[in-house]
Design brief:
By secondary structure, the protein is an all-alpha fold. The chain has six helices and two strands, in the order αααααββα. It is elongated.
Length: 162
């Protein structure tokens, strides 16, 4: 089998996370595809991983702890993506998360009425596909691969530390 160095793997996860975030914003703002609320939630693990990996490289503290945290974060990403995929395929009903909109900046009743009249993007509707796959499906694969990579790194940590 092949040995993976911890630093290399963390850099690889950083690059994957960076590309995922940039791609999501490109698809949203440049291509004009509005994300649903679950799509927005699926971005959180990538942002957290960027933050944790940067902190890890700055502080050079405990790689093993960061690996555990990243594993938990991407397990969360995987589970949310599976749930979202289930909604897309009709296996699950849309939850209230799918219909919520940002209400933190509401100042007047007119703004509230405007928000209520806007139709939020349904978690069931896939507005963008790559090679016939929804971004949620792609996220399932990426999250699973990162989880497998992190578990491999954790198991062989002492051998591949540097």
């Amino acid at each position: 089998m092949f040995n993976l160095k911890v630093e290399f793997c963390l850099k690889l996860i950083f690059i994957i996370s960076f590309v995922a975030i940039i791609s999501a914003y490109f698809i949203e703002y440049a291509l004009g595809h509005q994300p649903c609320n679950l799509c927005l939630i699926e971005r959180i693990p990538y942002g957290l991983s960027l933050f944790l990996i940067i902190i890890n490289f700055i502080l050079k503290k405990n790689d093993k702890f960061i690996i555990i945290l990243l594993t938990l974060i991407f397990i969360f990403s995987f589970l949310i993506s599976i749930y979202h995929f289930g909604i897309e395929q009709g296996f699950f009903q849309e939850s209230t998360v799918c219909g919520l909109s940002n209400t933190t900046n509401i100042i007047s009743k007119d703004e509230l009425l405007k928000i209520l009249n806007e139709k939020p993007v349904s978690c069931r509707d896939v507005t963008f596909r790559i090679f016939g796959l929804s971004l949620t499906t792609i996220n399932i694969g990426i999250s699973l691969l990162i989880i497998i990579l992190l578990i491999k790194i954790y198991k062989t940590y002492e051998k591949n530390k540097y």
